[in-house]
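The instructor's notes for this session suggest beginning with a concrete chain rather than abstract definitions. Hand out the sequence below and ask the class to guess, before any prediction is shown, which regions might be ordered.
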Amino acid sequence: MLREALPELVTGSVPGPKAAELLKRRDAAIPKAMCGTTYPICMGRGEGAMLEDVDGNRFLDWIGGVGVLNIGYSNPEVVEAVKAQADKYFHGIFNVYAHEGYVKLAEMFDETMPCRGDKMKTYFANSGAEADENAIKIAKAYTGRNNIICFSGAFHGRTNLTMALTAKKAYALGMGPFPAGIYRAEFPYLYRAPKGYTEEEAIDYYIEKFLKLFDEATPASDVAAVILEPLQGEGGFIPAPIEFVKKLRKICDDNGIMLIADEVQCGNCRTGKYFASEYWKEAGAAPDIIATAKSMGAGVPISAITARAEVMDAAPAGTIGGTYCGNPLACAAVIKTMEIMKAEDYCGKSMHIGKVVTEAFEKMKEKYSVIGDVRGLGGMIGVEFVKDKESKEPNPEFVKQLIQSALQKGLLLENAGSAGNVIRFLAPLCMTDEQMEAGLKIFEDAIIENL
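After discussion, reveal the predicted structure:
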C-alpha cells in the first residue's frame, strides 16, 4: 500500500519516460512562468506522506504541497465526506443563500481560533492571499484607518495588495503600481541579528526599529493593522520570538492598531498547536484577527478569516464574500479534516515528528559546517545552509544541489529564505516513523554527496 511505502525509483532516475512526455506537453500548453519547476515529476497518485509519479516512482514528500497536506494525501474519510456532499450539491453562493456546511464550519472555527475576545465570528474565502486581503479589509473597517505595517521576509500572496505586502519582489516583478499605505518593518531574525547581541538585546533592537516607522513612515494613528506570520514561511521558517510578539502586542494596544496573524502556512496543527497563535495567547498576546488556509481543507481550496464579533461586524454589507467562498465541497472537506485532526491528536503527531527530526538536524549541524541554523516549531522546521558558520554567508548553491540529489533518491525537498538557502520541512503529519527515518537518511546522504 502506497500509504506505508518507502521511497523507490523504479526508473533509476527522474524524469521517467511518461513524465518526460507529459512535461513536454506542459511546456507547450502552459505559460513559461508556471513551467520552471524544480521537480521533473508528474503526479500519478498520493497517499499519506507518499507521492507516486506516472512512471511508478515513489517519493517521500517533505514539501506537502507547500504546507497543504498536514493530514496527508487522499485521507479516506475526507474523500468520503466530499463524495457525500457532492451527492447533494456542488455549489451555493453564501451571500445569497445559506448552507449547513458553512454555518457548522464557522461554528467550529469560532470555537478553535485563539483570537483576542470571547465571541468570535468567521467567514471563508478561497486562498491564503484572499484570507490576508480580507483580514486587512476587516481591520480597515473596524479602525477606520488606511495604513498597514508588514515585515521583511514576509510572504502574503500574489494578489495586487498581497504582492505589495510580500517582501521578495521577484514575486511582483513588473506588476505595479501597488496600493499605497504599506510600510515594512524588520522581522526579528535572531540568527542574523547584529553580531554579539543577546536574544533580549536583539529583540529590543527590532522593536526600536519598528517604532521608528511611526516617526519616519506613518503616524501610528493612521495604522489599521500590523500583519505578522507567527512563523515565517517563504522568509526562511523563522519563528517570531514570543517576547517580540508581546512587545508588539502592547504597541498595537497603546495605539489602537489591530494585530493580524497570518497562519496560512503555519496553522492547522503544523506547529504543535492547532494554530500557532495559541503560543501567543498563552503569553497574553493573542492576535485580533487570524487568517488561515492551506492545510485546513486537506487540499481543497478554502481559507478562513476569524476575529471577535465586534471586529467582524464592522465590515459594511457587500464588502466581503464572493461567488465560491465557503464552497459546500470545501466546507465538507474542512469539517472532516478538523474532526480527524482533533480526534487523532495531530498536534501531538506534529510535536513527535518535530522532536525526532529536529534532534537529527541538530546532530547534522554539529557534523557538517554547511548547516548554520536549525529552527522552528513542532513539525515546521527550517535548516539554514551557509558557506561557513563564522560568516554565515548564505549558501543557496548547496541547497539547489541538495534538492536535486535528494530528488534522485526519492525525497522531495523545497527551499525558502530570501537567499534560497533554507530547506523547509513540511512533511505530512501522518508520516510513519519508518518513513521519517528513511527520509532523514536520504537527507544526510544527500548532504554528504555534495560536500
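Then share the key points. The radius of gyration is 22 Å. The mean pLDDT is 97.
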